[in-house]
Amino acid sequence: MGDIEAPDSNRPRQTVLLSVLPKEFATSRKGMLLIAEVALSFVSFVCFAASTAAAFVTVPLLEFLAALFLFFAYATKFNERFKGFLWPLMDFMRCVTASIIFFIISIIAVSKYIDGASKAAGIFGFIATIVFALDFYLIFNELANFLKQGGESNEEPSRQQDDFSDSDSD
Known about the structure:
This protein is mostly helical. The protein has helices at residues 16-20, 23-26, 29-50, 58-75, 78-81, 87-112, 116-148, 157-168. The chain is globular, with a radius of gyration of 20 Å.
């Protein structure tokens, strides 16, 4: 009476994020980079909010929101509906500015403030700097390859790069 049936153990378990978003994007290189950027920006935001270096809380919050927006825009193919925006260039500029600003505020947080939360925010900021720098390096390579080909296709550089990497293996 009233017993709860055991869930089907043969069925694969999905996380909430993967059930909402397409799995192919969340497991792609760009998807994993954006997830890392969102997570590191949020952790850095929480650490800065709890520290004496609370003046720097705005940068991680804005980068968290920007990375979250781009994650959902790419995952739901929102960027394909609005062709007027230069999505790869906008993403490149976001990553460049984020890596520079995270590097600067991390140096200040580690060197100037003595509390543990500021030090943790600085360490997470340095890790975020590396992730953002890796992302803008990869975007730059995609844009450079796209421009070398003369920009003949209407597809975005990231989609075109995937097509060429598939054809190289044939």
